[in-house]
Automatic annotation (TrEMBL), chain B:
InterPro entries in alphabetical order: CheY-like_superfamily, OmpR/PhoB-type_DNA-bd, Sig_transdc_resp-reg_receiver, WalR-like, WH-like_DNA-bd_sf
Name assigned to this protein: Response regulator
DNA-binding segment(s): 126-224
Occurrences of domain Response regulatory (ranges): 2-117
GO molecular function, one term: transcription cis-regulatory region binding
Gene Ontology biological-process annotations: regulation of DNA-templated transcription
A Pfam family hit: Response_reg
Superkingdom of origin organism: Bacteria
The organism's taxonomic lineage, starting at the top: Bacteria, Pseudomonadati, Pseudomonadota, Betaproteobacteria, Burkholderiales
Modification 4-aspartylphosphate, positions: 51
Length: 462, 226
């Protein structure tokens, strides 16, 4: 699953992002509208007053100043507050003849044509759109439209816009708070569970949300991780208990031996015999430790740097040859059927150890005059198997999954030498090689299959 | 032989020093890396026993590497509490000649040290070696005892060859396991002893003096001395 990399998502980021996007959308909507409104209104208004002025200019052409004065008088009412149209007709000597302005206003452009200006009418500033026409004989005509009557509309528009903006921001803030609260409840659930786990309640799990949302994936992954952690911790506890248990025996023996020596002070000969026995006790303890360390080393996956091309069949033949004299001594037939080379990528040192453990196991349990068969073959293109089969007591089916656990000693192995780590090491080596240790019933006896991958799957481990 | 021991643990140092002195060696001792380095470069030693974990967080391997880069070829046995095949390989790669994991039996240390001293003494590869009336021809893979040919399997020959090269020296089971079979684990069975007794059957049985002897608590020795 490929994920697009997004900036870190917090409720605040989402809210700010939402607000910004909304404001941009609002501006995209309002900006052109504002522009269109203005240009359009301007054009229409200019057209209106221009056509007005032409009409009046024609009237002047036809009927002279009197006709025009009469027409204007009939058009405008005295006041001009709120009046849409301003008209002023001036005689050449600057006397007002008609119109609703008291006199020629200041600040007008000094030429004919259209334009806009701000003038004072009744002591108030007004923005106007105007047309100035110079008629014949120095008569002047000013027609303007008062822009202020649109101020209200514009104000409304601006207020509306601001209101929308505020609503957007408010919505973003509220949404942010709500999202934050929802996330917090979720995260709180996670952190409460995690806190419980930190306190040692390892069996606690995160609640999976019913609606398959984004957090479900996270929850699932975290729960899987917790399963693994619990498994490992339980494993560690089991191992610690087992170590304590397994080491207690040789250590108590050792202590008793030394104590007895110190109390009874026997003769020199006996003292040395006891010391030798004590050294043997210590050696046993050391063996257990070494096996454990080796197991930890293999399990950590750091051993992949010893991987080379190995001929598994040759390796199996050599291990068989190595143990052949021991089998001979116990009157056990050790049979290895060579089948030609079987190449795989692996660690020869560890594979030899794993195979050695399997053969030693078989030697331990095969009866006098029994038989052990070792074979190697390639069932699939990417798998190589080494089989070690014996005709001993075998392992009961319900015990099989447990014998690879550290220190687990099956019923039949009680009272036999060994520390109960042999099969754990084999299993760990198999895992390191991308395979597994499989145990089958050989009817009678055990058929152990060490399965390894021909080439380990892309080095996911160290 | 003149030996240098670089080891910070007082008890281990005392124990090793005493053992080596009793075995007839002269031992200088340094309890930290700096002194160890100083001794190693300023005096000629026949071999050095180097602990890996030294005070001040110094790894003994760094000293070994520095010595090797300085052209010093003295045989070095590395002691380490790190028991991993990787650590062993690392120890040998950085210039150590052999590697021993703590805790160790003193017999093991002595045997390995003797092997190192011997190796550095006669570098020449001998093609035929004799020990009493036993003759081993390394090239032709032929073995005779008192003039009679002895037939050996290839691996048996390799075992005998190793013993002959280390004649009159104790070789431990671990040394045999590592050097003859190239295995690095503790067998739970007495498989090495069985191999030795099979070899004994062939080279000692029916001849006058046994050459292949068991050394209690340590290992084996091929010798014609009384």
């Amino acid at each position: 699953m490929t994920m697009v990399r997004l900036p870190g998502f917090s409720a605040r980021t989402i809210a700010i992002g939402y607000a910004l996007v909304s404001l941009v959308v609002l501006a995209m909507f309002a900006g052109p509208l504002w522009y269109a409104w203005h240009t359009n209104i301007q054009e229409v208004r200019t057209e209106l007053i221009v056509s007005d002025s032409q009409r009046l200019a024609n009237l002047f052409e036809r009927g002279g100043p009197f006709a025009l004065t009469a027409a204007i008088d009939s058009q405008v009412v005295g006041t001009n507050d709120g009046v849409r149209k301003i008209i002023l007709f001036m005689a050449p000597n600057g006397v007002k003849l008609a119109g609703n302005l008291p006199g020629w206003p200041e600040g007008l452009p000094d030429r004919d044509g259209t334009g806009s200006a701000t003038i004072r009418i009744d002591g108030a500033e007004r923005r106007i759109e105007l047309v100035r026409v110079t008629l014949g004989n120095g008569y002047r005509l000013l027609i303007a439209s008062n822009l202020n009557r649109f101020d209200e509309l514009e104000r409304l528009f601006v207020y509306g816009l601001l209101g929308c903006g505020a609503a957007v921001l408010g919505g973003a803030a509220l949404g942010g708070v709500l999202i934050r609260r929802a996330l917090l409840t979720r995260v709180q659930g996670i952190s409460q569970t995690t806190a419980a786990i930190i306190e040692g309640k390892l069996s606690r799990r995160l609640k999976e949300p019913r609606d398959g949302d984004e957090l479900q994936l996270l929850t699932r992954t975290v729960n899987r991780m917790l399963d693994q952690i619990e498994h490992l911790v339980t494993g560690v506890q089991d191992v610690s208990n087992a170590i304590a248990h397994d080491l207690r025996t040789p250590l108590s023996e050792l202590r008793a031996r030394l104590e007895e020596l110190s109390v009874t002070r026997p003769g020199e000969e006996e003292t040395y015999a006891e010391i030798d026995a004590a050294i043997n006790d210590v050696d046993r303890v050391m063996k257990i430790f070494n096996a454990l360390l080796r197991l930890a080393e293999i399990d950590s996956g750091s051993r992949r740097n010893g991987f080379v091309q190995v001929d598994v069949a040759k390796l199996a033949a050599e291990v068989a040859e190595f143990y052949a004299p021991v089998a001979e001594l116990k009157n056990i037939t050790l049979d290895f059927a060579p089948r030609g080379a079987l190449c795989a990528i692996g660690d020869p040192v560890l594979l030899a150890q794993a195979l050695g453990n399997l053969v030693e196991n078989a030697l331990k349990f095969a009866p006098e005059g029994g038989m052990i068969a070792i074979s190697a073959h390639q069932p699939q293109r990417d798998t190589v198997e080494i089989l070690v089969a014996d005709n001993g007591p075998g392992i009961a089916e319900d015990e099989r999954p447990r014998v690879v656990e550290r220190f687990y000693r099956g019923d039949v192995s009680r009272g036999t030498p060994g520390v109960g780590l042999g099969l754990s090491v084999v299993s760990a080596v198999a895992r390191l090689h991308g395979g597994a240790l499989l145990l089958f019933d050989n009817r009678p006896g055990l058929r152990a299959t060490l399965q390894i991958a021909v080439s380990p799957a892309g080095g996911t481990q160290g | 032989m003149k030996l240098l021991l670089v080891e910070d643990n007082e008890r281990v140092a005392r124990f090793v020093r005493k053992g080596l002195t009793e075995a007839g060696h002269t031992v200088d001792h340094a309890d930290n890396g700096r002194d160890g380095m100083y001794h190693a470069v300023s005096e000629p030693y026949d071999a050095i026993v180097m602990d890996r974990m030294l005070p001040g967080g110094i790894d003994g391997l760094a000293i070994v590497e520095a010595l090797r880069q300085g052209g010093n070829r003295v045989p070095i046995l590395i002691l380490s509490a790190l028991d991993g095949v990787d650590d062993r390989i690392l120890g040998l790669k950085s210039g150590g000649d052999d590697y021993l994991v703590k805790p160790f039996a003193f017999g093991e240390l002595l045997a390995r040290l003797d092997a190192l001293l011997r190796r550095s003494q006669h570098q020449a590869v001998e093609t035929t070696m004799t020990l009493g009336d036993l003759t081993v021809d390394m090239l032709a893979h032929k073995v005779t005892r008192a003039g009679k040919p002895v037939t050996l399997q290839p691996r048996e020959f390799k075992l005998l060859e190793y013993l002959v090269r280390h004649a009159n020296q104790v070789v431990t089971r671990t040394m045999l396991l590592e050097n003859v079979w190239d295995y690095h684990f503790d067998p739970q069975t007495n498989v090495i002893d069985v191999h030795i007794s099979k070899l004994r059957q062939k080279i000692d049985a029916g001849f006058g003096k046994p050459l292949l002897r068991t050394v209690r608590n340590s290992g084996y020795m091929l010798t014609d001395q009384p």
